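Final report, Chapter 2: Outcomes

The project's central promise was a pipeline that accepts a single protein chain and returns its three-dimensional structure in a standardized token representation, suitable for archiving and comparison. That pipeline is now operational. To close this chapter, we reproduce one record exactly as it appears in the project archive, with the input sequence first and the structure output second.
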Amino acid sequence: MNETTFQQGSRDHHYIPAFYLRKWCVDGKLYTFSRPHSELRDRRISVKGVGYERDLYALPSLPAPTQTILEDVLLKAIDQRASNALDAILAGSIGELGDSDKLAWGHFILSLHHRHPEKVRSLRQTWTEGYKKRLQDLCAEAALLNDPSSDQIRDDQGFGMLFNRINLSESVVAYLLGMQWFCFISNEWCYPFLTCDQPLIRTQDLRLASSYLMFPVSPNTLFVAVNTSDFAKQVRRMEPRKLIADINDDICIRATRFVFSNSPSQKQFISNRLARTKNSHSPR
């Protein structure tokens, strides 16, 4: 991509938002673990220096003001509203969230699922390989595809519309809002929760009585969404050390490149579980 193309927008597109990772920071930095080769690599770094990929959501063939609209407008708005909701959740007010904070948190959860580099590349491919043809029969916005411009412009337009739609899906967010939300708070004597570059732990189908969605939102707080009170009781009754170990085990296995912590205390635990980087792309 031409380096001068993006002068009006950001270049470093964070798929793990800085406001989220800051909860693991000590003195402005967090511990980052990765395995680019055979040995585990660990370092302390600021949130701005990790969890991003250059031009990840860029639409380079479009006019300059809209090339970074997904990062600078869509995801920025989602993250700003979700940051306020997370502050309320960590203050112990998850049961008292207002409608706007609930909606903001629901959109943030949805964005975490779709904004990872692997998901973005898959979505671009999905669009290119045929979804744009199907969309012509589904929505009036498909008129954009009839513009007598290059395939790259049509692909950028289509991907931008598709990314916007799935991150603002009212039906999915409504379902998330209908689930029972609560937080599991760990004790001081337990190991802290870890997080990673793909932190959502969930069942494939969220519509079953036994379905769940959970992910750490701070070193001592796990956000949990379930469908039934009985299943919520099961989670609350779990022995804290076992729950934390199970969650951290899943976090390390789910990570595609990074595991994050507020301390180096679980380095060996992470080393035993974190696989070598799974793809040839180089997100930071």
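Archive annotation: The two ends are 18 Å apart (CA to CA).
This record, like all others produced under the grant, will remain available to the consortium after the project formally closes.
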